[in-house]
Amino acid sequence: MGGGVVKHLLRNHDLIAERTGLDLQIKRVAEPQVSRVPAALSAVVTDDWRQLVADDEVRVVIELMGGRTLALEVARAALAAGKPLVTANKALLAHAGEELFALADRQRTGIYFEASVGGGIPIIKALREGLVANHIASIHGIINGTCNYILTRMADEGKAYAEILAEAKRLGYAEADESLDVDGIDTAHKAAILASLAYGFWVKMDDIHVEGIRTISALDISYARKLGYAIKLLAIIKPDENNAAQVRVHPALIPAGSVLASVSGVYNAVAVDGDVVGQTLYYGRGAGADATASAVLGDVVEAAAGLGVNHSSRFTGHDLYGKVAKIDQVVTRYYVRLSVLDQPGVLAQVAAIFGRHDIGISSVYQPEEHAGETVPLLMVLDQAREANFQDAYREIQRLAVVREPCQAIRVEDIS
Amino acid sequence: MGGGVVKHLLRNHDLIAERTGLDLQIKRVAEPQVSRVPAALSAVVTDDWRQLVADDEVRVVIELMGGRTLALEVARAALAAGKPLVTANKALLAHAGEELFALADRQRTGIYFEASVGGGIPIIKALREGLVANHIASIHGIINGTCNYILTRMADEGKAYAEILAEAKRLGYAEADESLDVDGIDTAHKAAILASLAYGFWVKMDDIHVEGIRTISALDISYARKLGYAIKLLAIIKPDENNAAQVRVHPALIPAGSVLASVSGVYNAVAVDGDVVGQTLYYGRGAGADATASAVLGDVVEAAAGLGVNHSSRFTGHDLYGKVAKIDQVVTRYYVRLSVLDQPGVLAQVAAIFGRHDIGISSVYQPEEHAGETVPLLMVLDQAREANFQDAYREIQRLAVVREPCQAIRVEDIS
Q: Hey, which end of chain B has fewer CB within 10 Å, N or C?
């Protein structure tokens, strides 16, 4: 990622200077393995990041190392020295943002983190500045390129998760250890940042309900399509009816005709619904050294242009909700796929349980397919509280006529 | 539009204050017909805009009257008084932007115009700030809600342009005089602003090639769909191979699977391709008092927060191209629909003319339909220079076997 920033800063230095009047120079590069740094930078490279932060000529510090240990030390040191910090590190901000923004405020400097969510998409700027006059009614984000790549290829080719994952690793679209991406943790880091911006209080990682995409099958993607839906891993952020903020990450069925459903491959998109502006959406490459460099350099320009000017992190002070809703209390719709014995009365038994839990069934679909002795039974349910749905779903799975595998995926009715 | 800004400023005043520390107050409202202003504002209303501009307590001037005569006077007076100007007036900026930005620079104040393009979508901010490190490789915009509404309904319902236009007027989606919208002029105003931002020199309205949607038929929309395309009115901005900027507004076939093709109804979207970030896209309501108010209020916050701070219009100084390409020199692909006599050898005659002009044919489609003695013949051509295509097209229309009506619409191969 550092390589991308250096490459594009050198290449577009004159353009940036002409547009902004700023003459951006790389004064220092800190890298433990100095041999990894291109020869052109050999005069400025150091293996000691403290030298970089302490250098008076370094006016803006860019942290692109990732991780949460050394990065936190660097961030603290830069801010403590009164230098603005540009970072793409979502894990760092999701876990230590509260501390770091408070420190920046005390030091009257700023943290710039456009690259932390959505790669090159200026979504942080849109939320903080463009939509500053809006109460945020909802955010729905496809903000992990690896997951969207896998789900898109599963949808296009009908292949299994494991097969596509293996190919994604071979092609460099997934890390050797894929868990941060496919288990939804990376998406949750970004959701924490978006939610904190939207609602003005720091959302803790532990308060975010997170599910990944490992259990999604090509079969469910294909059934969902027949029912008029696509399956995407979403970050969902919106207030509930008790003025708590819902912040959840999970796969969801979304209408096939929605703009979000047309977001394919490694692309990211964030749909933001504001009470003044209505629905808006921001789309682009969510990862990669180049896209990220665009956001980092935009931040560097802003940090450099703002040197000596008063700062406001705009992160605090509009504590709209102040608490995160428990997943049990969330009200959503569900898509349910059951494997049931092919005999009369099964639908009646299932429907009776949902009925007893006061959960309406909005559509039923039974394709003419068999898997051994069972047939698939698909349902899309009406809105129900999570705890209520889970009770009913457990009861249904205990029915003698219901066998493994079963699957339940939430439905989000976005436009 | 003024009503929307007032409504949302009053409603979300506290939110804005909590987020930014700014206490925004409406000090004066100028309106020739003071009776049109809500009673809540009667204490501050005046029918003399000069009073408003001269009032020391008015620190930011918002111009929402539209038009280019009185609005220009107001804009000049506000800037001359050193007050930042917030405006949604694309016609004003497209025609008088160069003068006004020069005046703002001299007065060390700013012009804020997020609401002038794309309604509530923060596209100006994205271009100027988020993508500041990017050479702009291309912009493709659906930036007129009326045209997109009409084309979407024509596509969905197969009805004629005139019928949908009449309904759009009845429903308030089109003005009584529709020409500014359907002839592409409003789109061209916005294109001039986007192009000027992207390429750093003022693009003149006279240099923009503009075609509207009056000649688009439901038939062509339906044929285009069969060929895998949607028809949209686009603003297209990109450099050509001679380092001139193409700035053109016309209907175009775009791939049905592209994100832009999924933009329907009154929604707007702008796809921006940057050399660092790759493809990005911004989507939302492009018009209406509410969406526009979101952008105006975002600008008011920025103008108010920037009071006393140095300004840079960022409009000048990176004169990348400095000239606009003539439409004759533009290279595009074309979709052509001919009405031809149903007899052997017709395709050969047509193909021979394209061949003589060195224009390849990428696909041919002849549906099994008759209209009187003629049958439709559809072709999608390879890339050709406009002047060359027009020569060939005129020659083909003169063939004895080719009758009226014929249609030619450009194809844009966006992803």
A: C
Q: How many CB atoms lie within 10 A of CB A30?
A: 22
Give how far Cα B86 sits from Cα of A93, A322, B293, B294, Å: 34, 34, 11, 12
**Total domain count for chain A?**
3
* Span B332-340, average pLDDT: 97
Of A114, A133, A302, the CB nearest to B297: A133
* A105 in the same domain as A201: no
| Structural domain contains residue A320 | no
Give per-residue pLDDT as tens, A7-45. Answer: 999 999 999 998 888 999 999 999 988 888 888 899 999
Q: Does A263 touch chain B (CB under 8 A)?
A: yes
* Residue ranges with strand state E in A218-360: 229-239, 245-255, 267-274, 278-285, 331-341
Active-site choice (B83, B90, B159, B190): B190
Q: Is the peptide bond before A405 cis (omega within 30 degrees of 0)?
A: yes
The model's pLDDT over A67-119, given as tens digits with 9 standing for 90+, comes to 999 999 999 999 999 999 999 999 999 999 999 999 998 999 999 999 999 99
Does B197 score more than 60 pLDDT?
A: yes
pLDDT band at A308; cut points 50, 70, 90: low
B247 and B163 within one domain = yes
Distance CA B291, CA B115 (A): 9
- Segment A128-152 shows an average pLDDT of 96
Give how far B392 is from chain A: nearest CA, Å.
37
If one compares A306 and B192, the residue with the highest pLDDT of the two is: B192
Task: Based on the fold, state whether residues B133 and B275 are members of the same structural domain.
Answer: yes
Residue-level pLDDT at B322: 76
pLDDT at position B150 over 70: yes
Preferred mutation among A86, A280, A321 to probe B, highest tally of B CBs within 10 A: A280
Residue that finishes a domain, picked among A285, A320, A343: A285
- Whether the CB of B316 is below 8 Å from some CB of chain A: the reply is no
Contact A321, A199 (CB under 8 A): yes
Looking at residue B13, which CATH number applies to its domain? 3.40.50.720
In a domain, B321, yes or no: no
CATH number of the domain at B162, please. 3.30.360.10
State how far the alpha carbon of A16 is from the alpha carbons of A9, A299, B131, B322, B332, in Å: 9, 12, 10, 17, 31
| Structural domain contains residue A94 | yes
Is 70 exceeded by the pLDDT of residue B6? yes
Interface test with A, best of B129, B263, B290 (most A CBs within 10 A): B129
% of chain A at pLDDT higher than 70: 97
The yes-or-no verdict on residue B309 having pLDDT over 90 is: no
In a domain, B389, yes or no: yes
pLDDT digits (tens, 9 = 90+) for A172-214: 999 999 999 999 999 999 999 999 999 988 999 999 999 999 9
Q: Does B122 touch chain A (CB under 8 A)?
A: yes
Please check whether residues A105 and A133 belong to one and the same domain.
Answer: no
Q: Contact B145/B292 with Cβ under 8 angstroms?
A: no
Domain containing residue A254: 123-285
Chain A positions touching B290 (Cβ under 8 A) are 276-278
On whether any CB of chain B is under 8 Å from the CB of A295, the answer is yes
Mapped onto helix, strand or coil, the DSSP state of residue A376 is strand
By the 8 A CB rule, do A360 and A284 touch?
Answer: no
The answer to whether residues A256 and A336 belong to one domain is no
B10-40 core/surface letters (b: 16 or more CB in 10 A; e: else): eebbebbebbbebebebebbbbeeeeebeee
**Which pLDDT belongs to residue A369?**
82
Taking CB atoms and an 8 Å limit, are B280 and A275 in contact across chains?
Answer: no
Choose among B20, B277, B294: nearest Cβ to A134: B294
Q: Do A278 and B16 touch (CB under 8 A)?
A: no
In this structure, the answer to whether residues A33 and A85 fall within a common structural domain is yes
For a pLDDT cut of 70, what percent of chain B falls above it?
97
Q: Is B190 a residue of the active site?
A: yes
Length of chain B: 415
Same domain, A245 and A377: no
